[in-house]
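Handout, section B. The chain below has 135 residues.
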Amino acid sequence: MQAILIFAQDDGATIPRGSHGGRLHIRYRLMAGTTPVPNAAITERFTAVEDPYGLVPQIRTGTYRTAARGDFDDRVGFSTPDPLPDDFRLVADQEILANGQTAATNRVTWSSAMVIVRATDGRRPPTVMAQVQLR
């Protein structure tokens, strides 16, 4: 099974008032070859790559179910009570699991102006990005 990136967009409006951070809405389609995989259980985990602020543990992880066409929406982000610096940067590796098996690995980079999700396992498209406004 493979989770194909479809699109990404800013979802920062969901950061709680009084908090700081950034969130990205990413849509995937889970495929087994050329066949969509419906009703699969999706989980995820993150590992720090560059985390000078200790925020990777605050990244919200989700649990999802794929729709009839294999689609699922992932909201990748974090919030913290502390203001973020102008040169903010956070990099984490994301593993997406479908029914307990790895379906995608990504490198997610948050900066003060953009979030980039890059597939690290050879999937296409290799990169999606969205301009975001960190709070």
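Note. The two ends are 36 Å apart (CA to CA). Compare this with the example in section A.
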